């Protein structure tokens, strides 16, 4: 009469309906966000957008071996990140995230524990923001894991757009950059090798977490989105260079960035020293740090830096100015010399 | 100086930004739906839900070799169907479809014409309903095509839910069933063989279109959703047997269906005669016809049948009654004898 090890249930035994019942129970367990009149289980979710609020909607597709590798990302990490990247988009508008629709395709032989872990990771990322899963879709996949999350949010006022940068604005970024790319680098060369090269377990945990479980700046986005003087805002997902180029293109302006002022994460510097690599490059081009990039009235910059630190504990660093030729971003060093810098990640380009 | 054949541009040359520019132009060309304050190009779409309206949200994931085959479905068909299946979900609530978010992953070597055709097919399905693409995501795929569409709609009153069937209700279905499964059967055995077996080109076009380019019953859903006496409603996507089981489960009721009254499409009968196959089986278990299944006050049935025909030209057929043991669906023939009948399609089950 020994205890049996827990039985590994395949999705084949559970079936799609069984899986949907599990997802529904898991969504119900996290407690409903305001405004959910009908959640999982009907043809559509039925939601109530509060009077006077705008609706925000964003979607992100994550594909195995493109956006993540199963060898380094646990199912719970995949769930976390799939929600976090969408939270970051809502944060960049200064909005309040609310309702998620989650589509998941996995191979037929996937065990139910992995799927449960995926939804648990997502619920962990969702809980601090009161986000509820209100719908979705499930499917077998003939290849690897595929996840699509659509996140809906609300906004009581005017969302902060990419297109609102003005000549003379200060350019600023929250937190620090480069830890995610450092984490990816460590995951790709292997954690054992990274440890052998002298990175502590704590440092490794910090940078791999930055890559696998990024924290969206939702609270910061709410504060900055309501603060007078903030003009354009977006999230830093493709890398500072690429994302600032988006702001400049949409606003019809140019920018000058002081590379020595870019807040490169201490962990990125340490990783670069231990493993080789260029921490500044990770900070400017690496992407996936999910910090917020904004432009603001230069007269408001000091007030915003102090106010954000006081309200949220998060740093805001002025790194440059909106100026020069439209669409052109000039990176300069402390001595004013120009540094050539290409953009960040773009799909389809080799 | 002969005319050169049009150059085939790969996505690798165009890049992700170039692709997004194309999608944005294509979305702009279809004209904006009401309520789009910010469409493609920012971190999120910004949308205005009209006062007094509820928000409806649904998402569907379509994966190559699970939901469609490239050998039979052209890129424009894939785009059409990806939107149509979501339109059908909004229709089943009696709602008004409005805004779509479209995520597309394709192999890096995909040519731009195919991607353009995908969005053109989607725009063709969207246009009659005034639906606009307001956001999305693009990615390379290491496998086949993957499409996720999230469709948002609005509803001025009370959406029709699956859970509202009551004992004694009549069960009814719009249009006819089985043509989609007949079309799939013809595509799988090959159109040449189907033609050799005596199916005319027109018939083949009808059934393959039913499978590849289903028409969602949006207008019918609006009419039925507002008509007094309609209780539960859902769309028939997984097959009548499976979908009626959903209604019964959600409503805590049972049902009795007269198989001889199920409106099996003439094209399905003809296909079954020519190619072999069971048209009634296709009608009851085939799925993907995207008709609407509803339950209503039996006293209202005649009025609903006549009213829907007059308002939309679409037939509504009473096929059974809500009665018996909760969760149990009994299928009977004209003579009252019970016919065993399994459910429709379910993912993960072999």
Tell me about this structure.
2 copies of one chain form a homodimer. Chain A has 350 residues and is of the alpha+beta class. In chain A, 38% of the residues lie in helices and 23% in strands. Chain A contains 11 helices and 12 strands. Chain A has helices at residues 11-29, 75-92, 112-126, 179-189, 191-196, 201-212, 218-226, 240-251, 266-275, 279-286, 301-312; strands at 36-38, 45-47, 54-63, 96-106, 132-140, 146-155, 170-174, 230-236, 255-258, 291-296, 316-322, 329-332. In chain A, α9 (266-275) packs across α10 (279-286). Chain A is globular, with a radius of gyration of 21 Å. The relative contact order of chain A is 0.15. Chains A and B meet through α1, β2, β3, α2 and β4 of A and α1, β2, β3, α2 and β4 of B.
Rg calculated over all Cα atoms of chain A: 21 Å
| CATH fold description of the largest domain in chain A | Phosphoribosyl-aminoimidazole Synthetase, Chain A, domain 2
Largest interface: A-B, 74 and 74 residues
CATH class of the largest domain in chain A: Alpha Beta
CATH architectural grouping of the largest domain in chain A? Alpha-Beta Complex
Determine the CATH superfamily of the largest domain in chain A.
PurM-like C-terminal domain
Number of domains of chain A: 2
Poorly predicted parts of chain A = 1-7
Number of helices of chain A: 11
**Helicity level of chain A, as a percent range?**
25-40%
- What is the oligomer described by this structure? homodimer
Largest sheet of chain A: 6 strands, mixed
Q: Calculate the mean pLDDT score of chain A and round it.
A: 92
Shape of chain A: globular
Strand adjacency order, main sheet of chain A: 8-10-7-11-9-12
Proportion of beta-strand residues of chain A: 15-25%
The span between the termini of chain A is 58 Å
Structural class of chain A: alpha+beta
